[in-house]
Design brief:
43% helix, Rossmann fold, binds NADP nicotinamide-adenine-dinucleotide phosphate
């Protein structure tokens, strides 16, 4: 398969929050985008108004294995290849250590840990052909250290971190560079709902995460960045 003339980037969960900001930034940067969302009809106008030749919006549900494959297949068919994947879609349940909440644990395992690994596995053959493929995993500081009692969320993000680091190792010889981004609190529905006592204006902005993604995509294979941590409060890590 021939490489596409312009770089093709897939983003999961692009209709709001951090994923939306990344999609808007990369659209402006001129990439060909494939957005995987649960409700294509709810794509914001800023993205839906893009030229059909630049943007594919495909249904994708992280809980549905088949939708991952059909999204990847549709992307490769439309654009002729895939150069990058941003694993962004994620959920937060706030169950703590002493809560009997294994259903919530299973749900986060499915969406936050298994689904990004599945997408990475499915795009890897295309990234190899690219020669400079990129995977950017939006993990979390909760995938690096524990500060509170969101044990299930942390477990799922630590697991996502393991998948991300494995992809980094496995892809290296084929020019695939993998970065995990670990923000603390970011302004989004997720923090409005689950961290209401922390002021939104004191959190990182989705646009800041998008700027980081945009910069990472410009780097050569010889300047790989394994991890980016972003803090809105002082941390010693
Ligand atoms: N906000 C933070 O403080 C923060 C910090 C560190 C890391 N993160 C991570 O950043 C990522 C984005 O979070 P956010 O803050 O932008 O959260 P958000 O505003 O709640 O958005 C979550 C996104 O994930 C999508 N999503 C959820 N479940 C899905 C599923 N089953 N299938 C497909 N898409 C699904 C949502 O789509 P729908 O619109 O269809 O629900 C939405 O686009 C997540 O992985 C999160 O863990 C967030």
């Amino acid at each position: 398969m021939e490489k596409p003339a312009k770089r093709v980037i897939m983003i999961s969960g692009a209709n709001r929050g951090i994923g939306r900001a990344i999609a808007e930034k990369l659209l402006g940067d001129g990439y060909l985008l494939s957005l995987g969302v649960r409700n294509p009809g709810q794509l914001p106008q800023t993205l839906a108004s893009a030229a059909e030749s630049q943007l594919l919006c495909h249904s994708y549900d992280a809980r549905d294995r088949e939708s991952a494959k059909s999204w990847v297949d549709a992307t490769a068919e439309k654009f002729g290849g895939i150069d990058g994947l941003v694993n962004n879609a994620g959920i937060l349940h706030t169950n703590g250590l002493e809560d009997d909440a294994e259903d919530l644990l299973d749900d986060m395992w499915e969406v936050n840990a298994k689904a990004p690994l599945r997408l990475t596995r499915l795009v890897f053959p295309y990234l190899r052909i690219s020669g400079s493929g990129r995977v950017i995993d939006i993990i979390s500081m909760s995938g690096k250290r524990v500060k509170g009692d969101w044990v299930g969320y942390s477990m799922s993000k630590y697991a996502a971190m393991a998948a991300s680091q494995t992809a980094r190792l496995k892809g290296w010889d084929d020019g695939i560079r993998v970065t995990n981004i670990c923000p603390g609190f970011v302004q989004s529905d997720m923090t409005v709902e689950n961290a209401p006592s922390f002021p939104q204006e004191n959190m990182s902005r989705p646009e800041d995460v998008a700027q980081v993604v945009s910069t990472l995509l410009l780097l050569t294979n010889e300047s790989a960045v394994p991890e980016i941590t972003m803090n809105c409060v002082f941390e010693t890590l």
